[in-house]
Every structure is written in C-alpha cells, then in structure tokens.
Amino acid sequence: MSDSSPSQRLRLDDHAAVAVARPEVLVSADDRTASRLADLAATYYGFWNNGSATLFERTVSPRYTDHTLPAGRQQGPSGLADAGAAFFAAFPDGRVKILQQILAEDRIVSHLRVTGTFTGRRGGMDGAGQAIDYLATDIMRVVDGHVVENWHVEDHETLHRQLATIIPK
C-alpha cells in the first residue's frame, strides 16, 4: 500500500506530464527554433499537468513577467508557482492539453483545454466533485530557452458556472 495521498497518486510523473501536453495541432516553421519552442512549451505545460518544480525551473525565467496578472497574485515566478499550487489544491487531477499551438521566432501561442475535478478548495469554497472543462489561451515570449513574459486569458465564466454546479448526494 502506498503512503502517498490521493492527490499525489493523481499526479503524473514528469515524462507523462510533458507527453500529455503535446499539441493536437502545431503550426510552425520547420526549423530548429520551432522544435526548441515546441519542447519548451510541452515542458512548461507539463508543469501544469503535475506541478513539478523541476519542470517549472526548466521553463520559467527568474525574470518572468505576467502581463495579465490576476488580482491578488504576486508578480514574477513565485506568483506563477503559487498559482500552480492553488490549481492543484483545487483540482488534484487537473490537466492542461494544448489544442492548437503557433510557434514563431520568440513566441509561443497556445490554445488550451483545462480539465479536472473540483475536490479541493478554491476561493473559500470546498469542491464537491464538480468536473471542470474550460478553454484558455497563452501568448508567451521566450528568451534564452525560458518563458520571460506571458499574456493569458482563461474562460472564467465557464469555470465559475461549473464550480457553482451543485452535485446531488
């Protein structure tokens, strides 16, 4: 019998987390830069599939800036790491899948599907097993193999509607 908690057992190892994050559709120039960007993006979203500090450190620059910083979130890599921890606290089985991705020069544009089950806690609310499934888009700028800037938008209207759904007992 494993000593790990149920939420830890739901976590993917780094290799599996990166594999899940590979895009369904990829648009890019066929060159080495695009290949490096694709690998960086899969590794970055691998972090959003398992919360791995190793994947985070391999992809996020110490100079990271969030240009669409949500209220209450600290700017920089620590704020992003805190967001990841909060995501997994609320949705221990949370997953991010790249539906489409465009790679050009120093930019990665990813259209994402975020799924999971609300069994944790978020915004003062305890989950009751509600399924989440919403879309998000990131535009990231890369310097020296790390994400240094991000502009993002999430479909919070759909997410909040799903979280408010009452699960019959």
Structural write-up:
This protein has 169 residues and is an alpha/beta fold. The chain has a single domain, classed as Nuclear Transport Factor 2, Chain: A. Helices cover 36% and strands 36% of the residues. It contains six helices and eight strands; from the N terminus they run H-H-E-H-H-E-H-E-E-E-E-E-E-H. The strands form two sheets. Strands 1-3-4-7-8-2 form a six-stranded mixed beta sheet. A hairpin with a 2-residue loop joins strand 5 and strand 6. Helix 2 packs across helix 3 and helix 3 runs antiparallel to helix 4. The chain is globular, with a radius of gyration of 16 Å. The mean pLDDT is 90.
What would the average pLDDT be, to the nearest integer? 90
Gyration radius (Cα, Å) is 16 Å
Query: CATH topology, what is it called?
Result: Nuclear Transport Factor 2, Chain: A
Q: Would you state the CATH class?
A: Alpha Beta
**Which strand order do you get reading across the main beta sheet?**
1-3-4-7-8-2
Please report the number of helical segments.
6
Strand content: 35-45%
User: Into which percent range does the helicity of residues fall?
Assistant: 25-40%
Oligomer: single chain
Q: Total domains, how many?
A: 1
Determine the structural class based on helices, strands and strand pairing: alpha/beta
User: What sort of overall outline do the alpha carbons produce when their principal axes are compared?
Assistant: globular
CATH architecture: Roll
The ordered H/E elements are: HHEHHEHEEEEEEH
> Cα distance, first to last residue?
29 Å
